[in-house]
Amino acid sequence: MGQKGNTTEEALGYSLKKLILKMPFEKITIRDITEEAGLMRPTFYNHFKDKYDLLEWIFTEEIIQPAEALIESNMMEEAVRLMLRRMEMDLDFYRKAVRIQGQNSFQDIIFQAFRDIMKRVLESKMKGKHMANRLLTPDSIAEYYAAVSSFVIIRWIKTEWEVTTQEVAQAYTMLVAEPLDEMIRELYSHT
Fold first, then answer.
1. Residue 29: closest CA among 54, 61, 56
2. Residues 37 and 14 sit within 8 Å (Cβ to Cβ)
3. Please, what sign has the CA dihedral across residues 187, 135, 175, 81?
4. Which of the residues in the chain have pLDDT under 70?
5. How far is CA 94 from the centre of its chain?
6. pLDDT number for residue 141
7. Phi and psi of 88, rounded to 5°?
8. 3 state SS of 80
9. Residue-wise DSSP of 104-156
């Protein structure tokens, strides 16, 4: 687990990460989070709408954002390897987080984070291009990559045996055999 953050968001994130190791996520209250962080309860709502929003912020800040440049450069295997290494540094937290089920499950949070970044990347790469297949829109391609990415990460976190980040990154590459840029070139033509 990282050190206590300098910003309010980081302090709240650190607090949630500490608490989730002690008790089930469902039992953690906003009051628990703010007390652990040494903050007033209303401060939480200046930054996050609920504890699921905070959980999404943690995943995005710690895992997605550091890999964003690699994703934008179509270096997906390297991006996945980096994300996995960062998750590995806090594996106990992520193993607890993956147990969160229901409407705001951790799997949903991971899927949404990947979908959002992939959609941004695809929309920027596809500007000025004409779709060759109406089914394969930036939205549907982003959802596909998000599904594969979240599947691989969830599967790795849940694994009971030791699987290296290298093996997981290779599995990801095998599942997504065709690089994103090549698929874009095939599906879209310049207008």
1. 54
2. yes
3. positive
4. 1-5, 160-161, 177-191
5. 11
6. 86
7. -60, -30
8. helix
9. T-HHHHHHHHHHHHHHHHHHHHTTTEEES-TT--HHHHHHHHHHHHHHHHHHH
Counted residue by residue, the chain has a size of 191
Q: How far apart are CA 76 and CA 145, in angstroms?
A: 10
Quote the DSSP letter at residue 26.
Answer: G
Across-strand partners of 123?
Answer: none
Nearest in space to 48 (alpha carbons), one of 11, 93, 20: 11
N-terminal to C-terminal alpha carbon distance within the chain: 49
CA distances in angstroms from 185 to 54, 113, 172, 179, listed in the order given: 37, 25, 21, 10
pTM for the whole structure? 0.81
What are the C-alpha distances in Å from 107 to residues 52, 103, 154, 185?
12, 10, 7, 30
Q: How far is CA 142 from CA 27, 61, 113, 182, in A?
A: 33, 20, 11, 15
pLDDT at site 34: 97
- The secondary element (H helix, E strand) that includes residue 190 is strand 188-190
Q: Can you give the pLDDT at residue 36?
A: 96
Give residue limits of the domains in the chain: 73-190
